[in-house]
Design a protein that fits this description.
The complex is a heterodimer of chains A (about 800) and B (about 350). By secondary structure, chain A is of the alpha+beta class. Chain A contains 20 helices and 41 strands. In chain A, the strands form eleven sheets. In chain A, strands 27, 31, 32, 33, 34, 35, 36 and 37 form an eight-stranded mixed sheet that branches. In chain A, strands 5-4-3-6-11 form a five-stranded antiparallel sheet, with no helix packed on it. In chain A, helix 2 packs across helix 5, helix 6 packs across helix 7 and helix 19 crosses helix 20. The N and C termini of chain B lie far apart (about 85 Å). The model of chain B has no long low-confidence stretch (mean pLDDT about 90). Classes of the chains: A alpha+beta (about 800), B alpha+beta (about 350). Bound molecules: zinc ion.
Chain lengths: ~800, ~350
């Protein structure tokens, strides 16, 4: 939680004798992240001035000439349009050359004297906006009449403020006093806590407090104050609130806020007239109970919500938001002041349910969601009562404090040697004790045994490691040496699928394809644009219930839309594209985490050549085609030693039916590749000839084998060409299969030289021309060996496929 | 007599061959002198059978001698002619070497994949095994097992994307996009016994507005090491070794206090700025203070150990986690995290 700590306020509790930057660095390193140090930035040209004389501008009705004295008899005449000036007013004056904020643009600018309607303004009197103090630009910012004329404005107005980002384990640092406790420990100096009159608890007539659920509300105290005069709070108090980032309202509200900023403990004030039955009760909301909250909204309270009620009705949601009915009004005279402790996780859950979590919640609710110490309750109440007596004329009628099960003090029993055991550095018991005492811990030592008792406000300390961190951070983490661990090295496991995946990644990049990494959450609309009729390609996806945008609201069950979208955007500034992605797709499983199925996706579209920069002098342009896609798949399978995974042929939705292949196994498509259905391509503004393919990585991996290596044959090859005619329906791979089967020992390769369809093949026929290479591992093949092998090939083709041999 | 003729013949042939101007002249000379049928030497060979028996060996030897001389002259001249020819060609054949080459299409691995590999490689040298785990996680592993029960104020640090299963949601076990790679600490410890040294790269999700340095979908790397005596100083050493490898040179490393519910003590790691070495108050890389905040870390909380069945009085260790994109951005100057996922090839082709 971001808090602002005005240094002037902090100094009330601790002496700071180091430069601000050094202090900020110490806090940042050892206590709480320092987000920034805000300082007054007005330069030497901005001073306190006094209006000596006001005259009408001779040439303009709405302008005045103001003569301003700004110390040591120096005076200048400025032109101003402000209506709120009077002679004797104390105002901020900026001389020429001063850096101020431009009232129109809001930007910093350097003031130059310039003529206005014929009269030169020798400087400026400044509005709040021009000072950077607020948005008000209607009139001049009038200053405290007691300020010395001529003083540098930065010396008398504005403050140095530390912006701290307090972590949720340190609710004690949500108050200035908590920060002061840290600073005192860091600087090894004393903490000055405010002197408080102890509150004698005598139950006042007309106010009682009851806790119905001590789990949810461990402590509940209230004070009854009468003769309260509602009015503005004193300037110093308002100033501190503003500096800390809160808006002054009236003295009662301001004082509750002030105490919250100082101690971290929120309070709530009720108009006693509205308390029916004269009681404040912490109880669970009744079924259907409603409340009009301070924001004017009528809310039905969720069942079980902890409320603060009187004897008849709910007055507010405990710790989160007050109700309208009992709020302080201008004519309030008797005030019931609540100061309570709530179970933080209950507050967090209720705030979430009411949509008041985090930054949308009130300052009080956000604090109550952290584990504030119940020991803050009497402190905060006493502090508030004292301020109300001093600044609102209040008389204390009485105080009631219910704390049915007081929390035991935490005693952490540990060993001094736990510090080196965890930190890896020797810190002596003496230093350990010194640090703990600086942090207001009580510490008892007996040889190596240490019993550390944190101050009650430190709700984050429970175990030895917590105490070790305290000692380590104050001693300084920069004292830790750097060691390379020398302990036992674990045996590593192998990750075959991940290794296979990385070889695929290198392979595809090696083939000249660019890898992409796309968002894994996509637009659900994309999933209905992958087939011509909009039918889904993949199972119903997992949905994000609170997406940041519709465009990232479902977990993609296929890589295809990401590939299409990436291609579409890139083809706006290039002629061709060849990309791949290797990523999981997310497939729902009943009653389990989804399957994250690693998938390879490839897309080719547009120009295949030239490879780069549109240079055609050596390589002529040509479009990607279906054989390129097949080639990449084929080469990748060869590179990864994949052959014949178990599969049945399937149809490939979303692809051109005559130019695609697909294989399924175990009820899911494991490979689909081909030309994108041109109707789909059109919808994605892609070239009609766009080629995509996807492979289930694990399915391929299961069909990959470890390579077996042999020495190459030392003997010469024998080459034979063979032309055959087969039926059009005969698949090429069947032809190759039969050729290989006919001469498994001697045939080294069978390469397709040519494909012919036409009169010489005959209708319904096609002709393949092959080059067969025969070779033996054991000797030079004789003419006779080769002739016999060729006879077997021909015989087998004729017999198995009805092939005719062409001469 | 015949020997003298033979010698004269060979002398003439050697002279002729030595003067041959090209390969055709050489071939003509070879046929003229060594030709099987009509070559000059063949004439002598034919005469041998007609000679008296005791003259035959001398004649045969003389013929062979002449033949060897002629052959050797032919070889020599052939070599000389080839060399001369080559020399002429080298002088004459020219390509304009200033013209551009044939361009290969270059495929590249995405910068995120490159960075994951590099992180894995570096930690492997320190004995860390790379493991992976689910991106869609249960509330238990992402939060509860890490000391962050429902309603815990620290949940505000990890704004969560909640996931609904179309096959039915189980309100007791809500699904989410893991907000960090830390759930894998728990999954690994549940499966293995110490000693453990693993690094986990992977995709994470947050409910967060995106800007130049924040994405709602991003990658992290997580480290976990457990044995009987690992300390904060070992953690510092490991991260120092990592920083040197990633950013090179003599990096310094800084720990400051931080808070994570699942580590105690906790720290934030910063590396000394490798651009300005802390000397440029206007440095864009470090923001001027000389330090680059890179990751969160700490000693694994005893409650986390206890929950996976490890005895915290026996075992202890550390964990750390940081953003992968940030490493890549720092090293390459890539100005905006969103560029990695827009996949404009003009961007990707720079890596
Ligand atoms: Zn720098």
């Amino acid at each position: 939680m971001l808090i602002k700590v005005p240094l002037e306020w902090l100094r009330e509790y601790v002496d700071i004798r180091v430069p601000i930057d050094e202090l900020a660095l110490k806090i940042h390193m050892s206590s709480t992240e320092v987000k920034g140090v805000e300082r007054p930035w007005w330069d030497d040209n901005v001073r306190v001035g006094r209006v000596e004389k006001l005259e009408k501008h001779p040439n303009a009705d709405k302008l005045q000439l103001a003569t301003v004295e700004y110390g040591e008899g120096r005076r200048k005449t400025v032109v101003t349009g402000a209506a709120n000036l009077s002679v004797g007013a104390i105002v901020p004056f900026a001389d020429e050359g001063a850096e101020i904020i431009d009232g129109h643009t809001g930007e910093r600018t350097t003031l130059r004297g310039k003529p206005m309607r014929g009269i030169k303004s020798e400087g400026m009197v400044l509005s709040a906006k021009e000072l950077g103090l607020g948005e008000d630009h209607d009139g001049i910012q009038l200053l405290d009449p007691k300020l010395p004329v001529g003083a540098l404005l930065r010396e008398v107005l504005g403050e140095t403020i530390l912006a701290l980002d307090v972590q949720p384990n340190r609710p004690d640092c949500l108050g200035i006093v908590g920060v002061a406790r840290e600073v005192a420990a860091l600087l090894a100096t004393a903490l000055r806590e405010a002197a408080l009159d102890p509150l004698t608890t005598r139950t006042p007539k007309g106010l009682d407090v009851r806790i119905e659920d001590p789990e949810a509300c461990p402590r509940f105290a209230a004070a009854l104050l009468r003769n309260v005069r509602i009015g503005p709070s004193p300037a110093w108090l308002q100033g501190r609130l503003v500096a800390a980032g809160m808006r002054p309202i009236d003295n009662v509200v301001d004082i509750t806020n002030y105490v919250m900023l100082e101690l971290g403990q929120p309070l709530h004030a009720y108009d006693h007239r509205e308390l029916r039955g004269g009681a404040l009760v912490a109880r669970r909301a009744r079924s259907g109970e409603t409340l009009r909250t301070l924001d004017g909204v009528d809310r039905v309270l969720p069942d079980g919500t902890l409320v603060i009620a009187d004897e008849e009705r709910a007055l507010g949601v405990a710790g989160i938001m007050g109700g309208e009915s009992s709020e302080i009004r201008q004519d309030t005279t008797t005030v019931a002041l609540e100061c309570a402790s709530f179970e933080p996780r209950g507050i967090g859950r209720t705030a979430t349910r009411l949509g008041l979590r985090g930054s949308s919640g009130s300052a009080a609710a956000r604090r109550f969601a952290w584990e504030l110490s119940p020991d803050l309750v009497p402190l905060a109440l006493a502090r508030a009562v004292r301020l109300l007596r001093e600044h609102a004329g209040a008389e204390l009628v009485g105080v009631v404090d219910r704390y049915p099960r007081p929390r035991a003090r935490v005693n952490v029993r540990m060993r001094f040697s736990d510090v080196p055991r965890v930190m890896g550095i020797e810190i002596s018991p003496e230093e350990t004790l010194d640090i703990l005492r600086r942090l207001q811990f009580e510490a008892a030592a007996d040889r190596d045994t240490l019993v550390a008792t944190p101050p009650a406000v430190r709700t984050d300390i429970a175990i030895a490691e917590d105490v070790v961190e305290e000692v380590g951070r104050i001693a300084g983490y920069d004292r830790l040496p750097m060691r390379i661990p020398d302990g036992p090295l674990p045996l590593h496991e192998r990750h075959p699928l991940e290794e296979f995946r990385e070889r695929a990644r290198d392979g595809l990049a090696g083939f000249g394809l660019q890898e992409i990494v796309a968002y894994s959450l996509i637009d659900p609309g994309w999933l209905s644009q992958l087939t011509a009729d909009g039918s889904p390609l993949a199972p119903e996806p997992l949905r994000v219930t609170n997406p940041t945008s519709l465009a990232q609201s479902v977990a993609r069950p296929t890589l295809r839309p990401s590939l299409l979208d990436t291609a579409r955007r890139n083809l706006r500034n290039r002629e061709g594209i060849a990309i791949f992605e290797i990523a999981p797709v997310y497939l729902p499983r009943r009653g389990d985490l989804p399957e994250e199925r690693w998938t390879i996706g490839i897309l080719l579209a547009g120009n295949a050549e030239p490879a780069r920069d549109g240079e055609t002098w050596l390589t002529k342009p040509r479009p990607w085609d279906i054989r390129d896609l097949e080639g990449f798949f084929d080469a990748l399978a060869e590179l990864l030693h994949v052959s014949h995974p178990p599969a049945e042929p399937a149809s490939a939705p979303g692809l051109h039916p005559g130019r695609s292949i697909a294989f399924a196994h175990d009820g899911a498509i494991r490979l689909a590749a081909g030309q994108l259905d041109p109707r789909v391509a059109e919808r994605w503004e892609l070239p009609l000839a766009t080629f995509v393919g996807e492979i289930d990585l694990a399915w391929w991996h299961a069909a990959s084998r470890r390579p077996e290596a042999k020495a190459p044959s030392r003997y010469p090859p024998a080459l034979r060409d063979l032309a055959i005619v087969v039926d059009e329906a005969t698949p090429y791979r069947h032809v190759v299969r039969e050729i290989r089967a006919a001469a498994p020992e001697l045939l080294e390769s069978a390469s397709l030289l040519d494909l012919y369809r036409g009169p010489q093949a005959g209708p319904g026929k096609k002709s393949f021309a092959f080059r067969l290479v025969f070779r033996s591992a054991t000797g030079t093949l004789s003419e006779g060996d080769v002739e016999r092998a060729m006879k077997r090939v021909v015989g087998r083709l004729e017999h198995a496929l009805g092939a005719a041999i062409r001469s | 007599m015949a020997n003298t003729d033979l010698k004269t013949l060979a002398d003439r042939a050697v002279a002729e061959i030595g003067a041959a101007a090209d390969e055709a002249a050489l071939e003509a000379a070879r046929v003229r002198y060594l030709g099987r049928k009509d070559g000059a030497l063949a004439e002598f060979t034919k005469q041998i059978p007609a000679l008296p028996a005791k003259e035959r060996p001398a004649m045969g030897a003389a013929v062979n001698d002449a033949k060897r001389r002629i052959e050797s002259a032919l070889d020599e001249r052939t070599g000389a002619l080839r060399a001369a020819h080559l020399e002429r060609e080298l002088g004459a054949e020219r390509q304009d070497m200033t013209l551009p080459p044939r361009r290969l299409r270059l495929g590249r691995v995405h910068p995120i994949s490159q960075t994951i590999r590099e992180v894995s490689r570096i930690f492997a040298t320190l004995g860390f095994e790379t493991v992976e785990g689910p991106e869609i996680e249960s509330d238990y592993y992402n939060f509860e097992a890490l000391n962050i029960p429902p309603g815990h104020p620290a949940r505000e640090k990890w704004d969560t994307l909640w996931i609904s299963n179309p096959l039915g949601d189980d309100p007791a076990h809500p699904l989410l996009g893991r907000t960090h790679t830390s759930p894998m600490q728990v999954r690994i410890m549940e499966k293995r016994r110490p000693p453990i040294r693993v690094v986990i790269p992977g995709r994470c999700y947050r409910y967060e507005a995106t800007d130049a340095i924040r994405e709602s979908i991003f990658f992290q790397y997580e480290g976990l090491a457990i044995d009987e005596k690992l300390t904060m100083s070992d953690l510092k050493g490991v991260l120092y070794a990592f920083a040197r490898q990633v950013f090179g040179g003599d990096r310094r490393i800084r720990f400051r206090i931080d808070y994570f519910p699942f580590t105690e003590p906790s720290a934030e790691i910063a590396f000394s700025c490798f651009i300005c070495e802390g000397r440029d108050p206007k440095c864009h890389t470090c923001g001027g203070d000389g330090w680059i905040e890179a990751a969160g870390c700490g000693m694994v909380h005893p409650d986390v150990l206890r929950r996976v069945g490890y005895d915290p009085t026996t075992y202890q260790g550390f964990a750390f986690g940081g953003g992968l994109e940030r490493l890549c951005m720092l090293r390459t100057g890539a100005p905006d995290i969103r560029l990695f996922y827009q996949n404009d090839l003009r961007f990707l082709e720079q890596f």
